[in-house]
Amino acid sequence: ESTGSIAGYCSSALNSLTPSQITFLQSLPKAELHAHLNGSIPVSVLQDLARESATIPGNIDSEAVQSGLEKLLNGIELREINEFFGLFPAIYALTSTPAALARATRSVLQLFLDGPTPECTYLELRSTPRATPHMTRRKYVEVVLHEIDRFNCTADGNGNGGTREKAALIVSLDRRMNAAVAKECVDIAVSMRKKGRKVVGVDLCGDPMEGDMEEFADYFRQVKDAGLGVTLHIAETTSNTPRETLQLLSFAPDRLGHATFLDDEAKAIVLRDKICIEICLTSNLLCKTVTTLDDHHIRYYLKNNHPIAICTDDPLPFRNSLLSEYALLLAERPFGLGLSEDEVRKVARGSLMGCFGLN
Ligand code: 6MZ
């Protein structure tokens, strides 16, 4: 019964490694390409934000927000993936002002890129522009980009030196967005890109059971025309139909998130076009879309020598890290997939080749 537990997957793989194996994983150059900003806020920062928000009357006193926060602080246990999306209103209540959003963004950049053994060498962080009583969607993107710029400008952490290409933004569209909002988000992404800001791509995410993907075709055409990368959450659950999957593939994505339930026709397209798959092992196991590591579709892509990028998805609810995800590759069975160091090095290199921003 330990299979669904938070502590389970990620920590036992990491704990089974020798110190030299851990050093090996830490020293590998690698990119994190699939991390949602509001799903990556460190727990301690969330607690600070909750304390600060409590001083704003009416801000976080709703029962839904309180129970969501409690779950996030204690560690979630999901019965199925749709329970997952109910966690976000609680986080959103805490990142609704420009100052709180800036603080959250800064902490996520630090989480992935700072410290003596950074999680990754390059980060494409994604976030859904959200209009709140305190900011417009454009302001939301400005705030996040401002923090990314500040981070990239601090070459040695003391403000000395020039800029470094460490982090960039992917603007997420949510499957639940109506046409006007989706258009607004695409316009923001494209106009930021034209101004030379660090927006490198557009994503499609959100509850996989929601939305009509037909509506998004025009927007992604616009995104591609502007030279931005396209990544799509695709076939994350069994309720995503083969028809929808083919429709999403017709948007000519550069990368795909999850791609858990592709049928043979879709797989053939993905292999033919060598579309990089963003693999989120712990996320899939905890959301129960995949039962065991042995059953995970990563094995299919490894066998076919197909480009993949190992990613965390949402370290806040999942309590994972990029290191613990790589540990799942290197650890011997039953803790991990038992790949060799050479195989893991190749996977890490693939993540850098899959970047929108560096190539
Ligand atoms: C689909 C996901 C997701 O954008 O507010 N999100 N969408 N599948 C997943 N797999 C588990 N994990 C997160 O970050 C939070 C948003 O990212 C999407 C959801 O729409 C969530 O509301 P941002 O920074």
UniProtKB/TrEMBL annotation:
Residues 29-355 form the Adenosine deaminase domain. InterPro entries: A_deaminase_dom, Ado/ade_deaminase, Metal_Hydrolase. It catalyses: N(6)-methyl-AMP + H2O + H(+) = IMP + methylamine. GO terms for biological process: adenosine catabolic process; inosine biosynthetic process; nucleotide metabolic process. GO terms for molecular function: adenosine deaminase activity; metal ion binding. Its cofactor is Zn(2+). Keywords: Hydrolase, Metal-binding, Nucleotide metabolism, Zinc. Belongs to the metallo-dependent hydrolases superfamily. Adenosine and AMP deaminases family. This is Adenosine deaminase domain-containing protein.
